[in-house]
């Protein structure tokens, strides 16, 4: 306290707030009209009514903290529920995909078996030859030969029909199918008919030539009796970008088709002999299948492709028509059954995935460099 008698009572020496004399003996503060609340370290000011005591203010603060915690917990629970919903959705979707794939596989194995459900009434036994003929495609020799035998053994099949829509492909696969058709044809139990849709060229015509009869649309593309090898020469490009090609071989001609090395005259002559011999086999098999129905035109085996109408004049086909006309002529109605074995969905998916990966990596290549 100051000793200055002129200072008014109740003031302090430059200090804010009441002095000890402003408080009574029970600790009440005349400025707040209530019990003194000691300040807490780091405490936030509490809102409330002016006449709220300290206990009420603490209770209000506690309730505010609980409300804030409730909001936080609610947000966390909402996010967890949302996450669980998405997890459940993806799990149900994966389960659906697995169940559909499983059902498709079981259906193809047990219920969609053509040999098990073949009708006894007269019908055409269809075998599809669609797309490129290759060992890793749906039009492979094993699958088509299985379909041929299924249709041949079916009691109600009045004829076996090769439904062809293919630009050709592998010589080996085509020759295997050709040989099987000729074997069945020699038995003579039922006719084998090739019906060409849009395209029946090269290896596809190789197959058709083994049939007893070939039918095509007037605008079908038929023929292309030839052999082709196609490649690229990158020897100049690799020299320009400064890349050294390192190839080790055992045998002086082992790498003669390497696209990064020049194809010399001797190697080119050798490879042309391989193509000519394969072409000669193609021609001999077509002549064996078609016999005297072929014309004497030298252009037939030149690799040209003909329309169905032109092919009729050249003896490449026997008549113009369609699958429906064949069915009406043979069984009196458009009644046919597809005996081509169903594709395994898992195998098809795996094969397609492998092809895509090979194409992306740049390592995809046909099983043989020669193409019909």
UniProtKB/TrEMBL annotation:
Gene3D superfamilies: 2-enoyl-CoA Hydratase, Chain A, domain 1, 6.20.330.10
Swiss-Prot/TrEMBL keywords: Hydrolase, Membrane, Protease, Serine protease, Transmembrane, Transmembrane helix
Source superkingdom: Bacteria
Gene Ontology process terms (BP): proteolysis
Matching Pfam families: Peptidase_S49
Membrane-spanning parts: 88-111
Name of the molecule in the record: Signal peptide peptidase SppA
Organism annotation: Vreelandella glaciei
């Amino acid at each position: 306290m100051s000793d200055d008698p002129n200072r008014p009572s109740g003031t302090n020496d430059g200090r804010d707030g009441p002095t000890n004399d402003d408080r009574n003996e029970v600790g009440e503060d005349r400025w707040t009209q209530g019990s003194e609340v000691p300040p807490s370290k780091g405490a936030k000011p509490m809102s409330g009514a002016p006449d709220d005591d300290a206990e009420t203010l603490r209770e209000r603060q506690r309730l505010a903290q609980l409300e804030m915690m409730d909001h936080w917990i609610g947000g966390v629970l909402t996010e967890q529920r949302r996450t669980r919903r998405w997890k459940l959705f993806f799990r149900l979707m994966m389960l659906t995909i697995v169940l559909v794939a499983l059902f498709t596989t079981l259906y193809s194995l047990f219920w969609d078996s053509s040999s098990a459900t073949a009708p006894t009434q007269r019908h055409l036994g269809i075998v599809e030859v669609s797309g490129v003929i290759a060992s890793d495609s749906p039009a492979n020799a094993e699958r088509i030969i299985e379909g041929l035998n299924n249709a041949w053994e079916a009691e109600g099949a009045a004829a076996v029909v090769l439904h062809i829509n293919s630009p050709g492909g592998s010589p080996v696969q085509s020759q295997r199918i050709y040989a099987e058709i000729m074997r069945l044809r020699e038995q003579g139990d039922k006719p084998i008919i090739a019906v060409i849709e849009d395209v029946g060229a090269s290896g596809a015509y190789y197959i058709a030539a083994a049939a007893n009869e070939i039918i095509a649309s007037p605008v079908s593309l038929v023929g292309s009796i030839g052999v082709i090898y196609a490649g690229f020469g990158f020897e100049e490009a690799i020299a320009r970008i400064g890349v050294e090609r390192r190839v080790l071989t055992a045998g002086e001609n082992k790498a003669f088709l390497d696209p990064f090395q020049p194809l010399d005259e001797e190697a080119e002559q050798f490879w042309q002999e391989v193509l000519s011999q394969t072409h000669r086999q193609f021609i001999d098999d077509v002549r064996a299948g078609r016999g005297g129905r072929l014309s004497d035109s030298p252009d037939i085996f030149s690799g040209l492709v003909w329309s169905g109408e032109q092919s009729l004049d050249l003896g490449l086909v026997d008549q113009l028509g369609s699958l429906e006309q064949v069915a009406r002529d043979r069984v009196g109605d458009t009644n046919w059954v597809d005996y081509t074995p169903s594709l395994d969905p898992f195998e098809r998916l795996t094969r397609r995935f492998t092809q895509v990966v090979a194409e992306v990596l740049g390592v995809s290549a046909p099983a043989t460099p020669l193409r019909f």
